[in-house]
Amino acid sequence: MSEPITPPKPPKPPRLRAPIDVTEKRQPSGEEFTEACAAVDWLGEGFHQGLRLAINEGGGRPGSVPARAVLVAWVLNAFEEGSRAEHTEAASQLVACSDEQLAQLSMVRLPVDRAYQRIWAKTDRVIKALDDGFDFQDGSATVHADLAWLFEVFPSAVVPANLPWSHTRSVDGTDWETCGTFVSPDPECDGATPPDTDTPLEEHAKTLAKTRSRLKGKVELGPDGRAIYTRDVDARAGHRSANHQHKAGLYIGYELHLSVQIRDYAYAGKPGQLTYGLDVPNIITSARLVPAGAHRGHATVPMLCAERVPEPGKAPTPDRTGSPVKVVVWDRGYSLLAFENAHGPLLLAGIEPIFELTDAQRSQVQVLTDVTWHDGTPFSKYLPDHLRDLPRIGRNDSAEERRRIQALYDERARWRYSNHGRPDADGYQRLMCPFCAGRLRASQLTQRKVSKNAPLVTLPDGVEKCCGGVITAAPSYFTLAQGLGLVYGTTAWTLAYGPRVLVETANSLLKDKYAALTRTYSKLMGLAKRTFALAFLLAGINRRIIKAWRAKQAEAPAHRKRLRRHQDTLAGLVAAANAPEATEPDTGLTGTSTTHHPTTAPPSRTDPSTPSGKRARKPRASRPLRT
């Protein structure tokens, strides 16, 4: 008996969803549209040609949405304050464009009911092409374009050529929580970065090995060997600090590292003095997005080494031509990293790090012949006891307490060893003691060269020799040395490290003032898609920063030249000499003094409303008394 035939299952009905509204945006202004097109065209014709080949645009049936139009739509969306990184937002921007603006993008008006699907499809193809990467020619240079390259260079696409630049950067990281739902309970932090700056790297490495061994077999692991807790397979578990939006603790998502431009400064070797350079806009010059908990040194060091500063009067270019960065300022979240992963590669690239020391780093006291190291700086072995273990300046200390502690650091800096020449090719440095350098003087010693401002100090009884001569120290002793020869804790170091907080301005714009980089900012999942969307937001923030900086410069009072008496100027002397009744001016050699006045006043100071060419003085406004 034959078995009954099972009828085939009916096909699933199409998924029903609410209609997507893409008509809520206003028409972009002419200025916004022009700036968005200029930012996309800044990438170069070679990039657009390579992108069209990568996505096979124009190879088959003509598409209704060019790749250039998709990029312009995402830029327009980033220019709008408070927008979100969604396909509907980008589609709404193109739907809101006028016919003339669409003609400039080489496209016609899209049907409202199909705009979202077409924008989503073309954006997905562009992201895949950039994720795979391709090469293009920019002049005589060959540039490899991928998502990491776009993320690092596109924030500079809105920077004009007439802005000042500096060679100093401030680096910091911020969190971006994923929108994916949890698929594994009880997440644990398994990142390479310690959860706080007080945990030594050796202790964190032991804890990390135990955590990853415990998670193996319980949760799904990614290609990097770390646990996947959400449907966003690229998001990882990390630790974030507290702010006004959330508490400190574990989160699942990504970490964004920002490089922000700050003013240059010059250090002449005086611990109490530091000279600032010209004021510059604190724009985002480069960035890197990585999974939360990823090694910070592996993310930021290549970013800083690849960054280039344009020549004065020139705009940045996609091939990143120019001079390298010279100084980087960052906090303990980066300085706690091992020397071979952070400060070492930076120094080899010619970048000087200025950083805050952790408690574990401050407790490291190295000893060499006649030298003792404190806070990464070599000092004389006769350093007084009250200057050895100085406290850190507290966040809530009063101004008087801060000045008192800084004065102790400045006093201790006189006892430091000086560099005797430049280090050799292997990094070995010759050092000279403060008494041989003439920075200190003592009555027990016979010194040949002493500064007239050198203070007189007292050495222990029986000391007749300050040191054993010039010594040579290995590079292993300078792993905690500050850049530019600064001494930790001094007034000069405080002035150099202080502008690091300017990177928090970019963080505040990302989190609150311009956008809301939180869990709900975007429903895109995956490192590639989030990197693509965030690149345009950073360009929009730079546009906002540049506008604010120019408004600040316009409101700043111009330099007012002091008004001089006309008879003391060069024109006044010539007019007095040619006067009919002029006599020889008094040079102070005789006892007779004669005052000469010109017969006519200069035209610029003659008021026709007053007789005899005299100016009427305006009454001086009363000023409040200073208390």
TrEMBL record:
Residues 585-606 have a biased composition (Low complexity). Residues 1-13 have a biased composition (Pro residues). Residues 614-627 have a biased composition (Basic residues). Residues 1-30, 576-627 are annotated as: Disordered. This is Transposase. It comes from mine drainage metagenome. The lineage of its organism: unclassified sequences, metagenomes, ecological metagenomes.
